[in-house]
Fold this protein.
Amino acid sequence: MSSVKNQRATEAPPVVPLSSALGADIVGLDLSQHLGDAALQLIRDAWARHLVLRFRGQKLTDLQLERFSARLGPLDRVPPYSPGVKSHVQSDYVTVISNVMENGSPIGDLGDGEALWHTDMSYVEVPPAGSALYALEVPASGGNTGFDNMYLAYETLPADVRHSILALQCKHDITRNSGGGKRSGYEGEYSARGAPGALHPLVRTHPVTGRNALFLGRRRNADIPSLPEKESEELLDQLWAHATSPQFTWHQQWKVGDLVLWDNRCVMHRRDAFDGKERRIMHRTQIGGERPIPAQPAGESTTH
Ligand code: OGA
Ligand code: MN
């Protein structure tokens, strides 16, 4: 049953842009309720246009978080946690991101440190299309999450660089998470050329918008295997320095009840550290994606 609030909102919930780079607030939707087709279409359209959507003031159970996310695509299961994490969440689809310890074990991943720029699960062959992160407890300050528009990062590269990277693939390291922690099963030491992980096109075409985006995934142990190692490192450093320029980014300051939905196909994200004495608990779903589509040189010339 739709609430009265959502019935009114399906007529025209406001979409309020959050920055010139990306992000918009969707105001007036209660995501605990079933969304009508019009509200869902509005979300899809706004998501394609703004890349990151924020819904404030939500109150969601895990099942409601799952149900809302699943309207946008079949969900991916929780990826393996770092060694020692003991999540109490029953759902196979809700990942806990938290620094809180219970009985000597963290209840979620990523701790209280900085998480470096990354795309979720880009180290698998078919990474998620998007993620929805819902704030249950947040620290008084710190722990902000930055988002980075990878369409803009690609479009603003010098033309010769844009063309020279079109045919290249990059390896996305599976061995460490974005906080630097070792993933279960990858306790050894790895170098960029030797580390395992999925190979993806450096430039991917978004299946919904048709736009091309830089697909960097994560810097640690990244590798472009078709180039000599030194050239791979230099090119990646150049691309990363450009892609993470502040003008392509927007930073979310969390309030309890915020749900932020981002598109992993054209957005990277990062997180600031926060005071480890404070509690932060976030629940995340992963919306299933498709194998990244390599950008075609022909398509590239028609978009500019
Ligand atoms: C994530 C993530 C950042 C944060 O959930 O994928 O990177 O702000 N989280 O907790
Ligand atoms: Mn992440």
Notes: The mean pLDDT is 94. The CA atoms of residues 82 and 183 lie 5 Å apart. The pocket of N-oxalylglycine (ligand 1) is lined by residues 97, 110, 115, 120, 131, 133, 145, 178, 269, 271, 282, 284 (CB under 6 Å). The first strand starts at residue 15 and ends at 17.
